[in-house]
């Protein structure tokens, strides 16, 4: 018997739907409670679908809301729906997919795809054939509604549709979709392309079987009058460029011509999709060949796309010059990922950003060949009276900095003063882009005499750090951090002035920019190192940092950038950090302890506790490393009074690679600083280090390898029982193809150090590693690590001279490099000069070419 609603029940549900549209929070709370109660009644969901599909007397927002509440119920408890209710909902959806209202059709489509994604596709075998069948309907609404639902299903379940589990429905769906590329309604054409597009990146076989028809159909739609259709055509071509470039190459000339038109499309969304084409093409080997003849058209189009539109300027509050007193809203603050500072583009217009990114990657492909097309345009832009045009010119200059640096060098001496002057422009958006562009040329600035450009640039950038506009503050702070990385100790004479500015900014900045300021201070410490350890500098810098440190609670994510900053400062200040180290050390230990405890509770009762944010533990371990490295032996008493070794034992076994990576770094630093406390734990730690010599996790493996080497040097002969736990893995890594350079070098050093303390144990394996060992250490700069490693190899050769016979020439080469550099350093540059003057010319050439001496 067909289900019918009870009139009284229906009125209750309608009242609930009306109440839930009220802005009042108390009413909202009551609605939530009522919903929980009603969900106890199995047929409550029947009422919801009835209101959505059948109660035409109600207004559309109420009907749609009913469908969305039902969708949430499906998400939360579909498995508990009685079969009769589930069947009723499915049937009603399919019967009403052609509702006259676009809002209701879309809501039903969302409901269908939510049921389908609950693993119901197998339990609803008639769904796909039925929807594909409804596409043939004479009624536009039915066809559009079914396509809308199919598009959502293709988006949500593309992999499932191409699997055996459902008998590969794509084999009939894709040819069906392709028929609709010629439909008279633009909405339907757009749905059809969007559906097929879902299967390009996954390289679906059903699509490959129809690839030529697909590409021909796309070309046929090239000049479509509907912007949504054009956008989907562009999107399809961009994805095909990534995965089926072979099919596009024969048509590349016309595709490029088409994309040149679309990049200037009056509809911004189409232009944006088209702009992606240049970004993707730049990654393909054929880029140069495909674009060489078109640069003369493409460059002006991209440059023109870099201007802010009027809408951009409104959205960016381009007319607001001073906003530093306005607090940030929380959504202004992007989530952060630590230790990865890439200087991102400061220009915020959507299309302009994409054009700039395209110009950047193309500059990296074409290098200076781009300049003849650009330079004539640039001059007109950079000195233009309209600020919007001038801003776009400064952006162009920044975008090409990496790729066209060589060719730009002759123009920089006259451009630099102009750019530095733009830092004082009356428009905030010009000041901020000038910061970014100047940072892109920081390397060149630092290569010139300091008074030429470094000093004026630094002076102006520091003023911009104290700008009244938040966007400019942010751009200036990021640019200054880049300048610090390039200039390093060149900044030492100006430290007092720099610190005054950065400390003043502390009292001035809102939330978001404070986080960037921490980064600028940390980078300064990394760049000038121990030069920061002067009482007057410490007096300026430490009080505001410690004040922030005391202000923040243990749960506050702002601790991340502050801990990173303090870690750099502690390493730089060395003994100068002593007065501050105790509370900082204690808190780091507490953070690690709290996170471990929370992880433990979560693993035992996941429904009762939340998973901890392990970043708290990672940054705390990193700061402890900074303290150990900076304070050296002074850290001894702190370690003695804490349970850090016990905590470290747990961290080294954490499931998260980043936690293990930071643990091994700390273990190595503590080994160097206060081995007395590490030694009792070696028997427990070594097997863990051995199991982490897995190059799948490069950074974990690298830090574990380094820590083993440091432990060797402290243990001496007592290392003997542990050699077998690690040696085979190390030999395996050094022989692996495609191992990153740093890991190879660290592995070679640790093998050398193991051989230095236990030559008898390691020497028998010499033939297995001597050749890669020599090649990986031949070019690294000399330090105590390399020194101990070479001494180790010499001791092993003493034990097993036969082990190097086959590869002796490699050994001589590596040793020659080590000895020559050591000798040159010992005798000093002048003596070496006189000594080497007497060499025959051929020998001089060989030494210079092979060993760089």
UniProtKB/TrEMBL annotation:
<keyword id="KW-0653">Protein transport</keyword>
<dbReference type="Pfam" id="PF13513">
    <property type="entry name" value="HEAT_EZ"/>
</dbReference>
<dbReference type="InterPro" id="IPR058584">
    <property type="entry name" value="IMB1_TNPO1-like_TPR"/>
</dbReference>
<dbReference type="GO" id="GO:0005737">
    <property type="term" value="C:cytoplasm"/>
</dbReference>
<keyword id="KW-0963">Cytoplasm</keyword>
<feature type="domain" description="Importin N-terminal">
    <location>
        <begin position="31"/>
        <end position="99"/>
    </location>
</feature>
<dbReference type="InterPro" id="IPR011989">
    <property type="entry name" value="ARM-like"/>
</dbReference>
<dbReference type="GO" id="GO:0031267">
    <property type="term" value="F:small GTPase binding"/>
</dbReference>
<dbReference type="InterPro" id="IPR001494">
    <property type="entry name" value="Importin-beta_N"/>
</dbReference>
<dbReference type="InterPro" id="IPR040122">
    <property type="entry name" value="Importin_beta"/>
</dbReference>
<dbReference type="InterPro" id="IPR016024">
    <property type="entry name" value="ARM-type_fold"/>
</dbReference>
<dbReference type="GO" id="GO:0006606">
    <property type="term" value="P:protein import into nucleus"/>
</dbReference>
<keyword id="KW-0677">Repeat</keyword>
<protein>
    <recommendedName>
        <fullName>Importin N-terminal domain-containing protein</fullName>
    </recommendedName>
</protein>
<keyword id="KW-0813">Transport</keyword>
<dbReference type="Pfam" id="PF25574">
    <property type="entry name" value="TPR_IMB1"/>
</dbReference>
<dbReference type="Pfam" id="PF03810">
    <property type="entry name" value="IBN_N"/>
</dbReference>
